[in-house]
Request: fold
Amino acid sequence: MAQKSISERPRQTPVKLTCDVLVCGGGTAGPVAAIAAARNGADTVLVERYGSLGGAMINGATALHSFFNLYKAFPGAEKKQLVRGIPQEIVDRMAAAGGCPGHLEQEKGFDYDSIATVFDHEIFKKVIIDMLDEAGVRLVLHSLIVDTVKDGGRVQGVLVESKSGREAILAKQTIDCTGDADVAHHAGVPWKNCSTDRHGVGLTFGLANVDLNRAADWLETNGLLWQIVHGKKDNLDDAIVRIGFNGHGIPALEEYMKPRGMFGPLTVSLHRHELTYVNTLCAFPVDAIDTDQLTDAEKELRRQIDTVTRLFREHVPGFENAYVNHTSIQACVRRTRILECDYDLSLDEILDATRFDDEVALYGFHDCAPRMMIKDAGAYGVPYRALLPQRAEDLQVAGRMITSDYDAHMSTRNTVCCMALGQASGTAAALCSANNVSPRRLDVNLLRKKLVSDGAYLGG
Reply:
């Protein structure tokens, strides 16, 4: 049966704002892009559909992966901080506010990530709006992007819907940081739906009233502990702040988790007697740009929280009196629309630590480590071309919408990589606006020099 349709009435859409740089999406890459653009002199607007910022950083991540190379997995390798600049400033600001114990060495599981950077999501939300305000970014919350404004192939802004109605925001340069490539999709950029590629959607939650030391001792004794990190927590200087264990090694948990593709759990503990964030849930397969499927996944994930919490209480000493004290606002999605850009990083290039003349970020973490690791504790470069979507001008992208190969994407989609690409795209957009050039005509050497002067690390 053909789907019914209606004709909408013609309308005149009011222009809410005009700006030099419009950043769409206030998740992981977007705030960094907006800060970078504004600091480089651009009149900048950041649009976000929710009432707070953070996206996957606060809905799915238990730590920021990763600022450093995987040096601990390669004896004798030099420790290098690969991502600096604005992402590091955010860590410093959270630390000063008591929301991050800094970059901490993994004591177990360091062949997955040598350094753990855990943080308090609530403190991040406040820190990031302070940094945006200080940079002069105009923030537009509670606004959903529903279309683009185009002149031929040139993107000139977006249309948003909100409680205020339908409005336009116009810009010289636009950056798509929506995660699902909403702007690029509406602009006609070719893309592939990769939602169901081997990885489901998840949802983080918190557990209170946990005796974490007792649990860690039992897990270690039974050979189930695979990650642990100690650091400052409340008034304790050497407390457990990150712990991961093999739930599949506990028969009752394995029986429930394995058929659902659930892993871990991998957790963070930022306050005494709690697991602040637990990452273990999975709904799969889910086409996360199909609202019906995503709705079903949300229901399934919340039911999983109830069952997993009960199983922890019954089978893991230290969890007997645990209860759920919060859940994320929505399911965390890892992969949906992947765009066709001017360059597509391959898995071989990532694992071989390939460098590029036009690289605008370095990165050294892979989420499948130790099965897949960048060789010799090295780093690969992300070329500026990878941020330029095809069939569109005056549009850049930053975040998890790049890299078509699934295993390659298991590196580039991670939070700290997205933050680094945010700084690159925001800086580039500001330079494009100031010099009245399109992104493809921007002098990449000028961009690279500006990134380095602003604190980013590009080797050397």
User: Anything to note?
Assistant: Residues 291-315 form the longest helix (25 residues). The two ends are 62 Å apart (CA to CA). The mean pLDDT is 96. Residues 205-327 form one domain.
